[in-house]
Please model this.
Amino acid sequence: MRTLICAASSCELRGVFPSITPSEIVHAVNGFEKGGFYFLETGIGALNTYASLVRFHLRVPVDRVLHLGIAGAYAAAREEVRTLRVPVIIGKEVVADLGAEDSGSFLSLEDLGLGGIEYYESECLALFDDLFGDSLWALPIVSGATVNMATGSSATGIFRAQKYGVEVESMEGAGALKFWKDFGIPVLEVRSISNIAAGRDKGSWDIAGALESLRRLFGVLL
Model:
């Protein structure tokens, strides 16, 4: 079975799998094989993620995708989710900033009468049991918002969490889960909480700690 492991950035890939060498990481945008797995740096954002997965799959057909990365948790998320360095499984994703601004308010496509809110769902945890046993089953399963503009204020974080019923935020998740929807290739998205999605107080972020928690979880693979 061909398993593709991908992340938005080379920093995330090397942070989780430190045995990936600098000479290997330079090829990550096109993908490379190591230890029986394929690795891919998709690029930042949902569009890059989707396009990168499609390009790779057309060249090297894969059977499943493990999508890793960091995420921000909204302040209103469950306590177990809004704890830094906690890995979570993303059960579904929605594009949370697709719409229009109207005198300081945000209108979704549904608000604009242009269609309903589309969620991309993932229910394939069992398909990865051969790699992880039951070690992932205890992780919180959350709903995620995918955005092009990361939350930078408490008000935006509260708004997005309430409007879409989501607990975490990233910039790529919907692109990966749409790939599953369109191509029928199972995608498991696992992220670790690096910050609270509110004001951009970088002093309170812990990206290194979030990657370390993913390394403890997935280090068995490589």
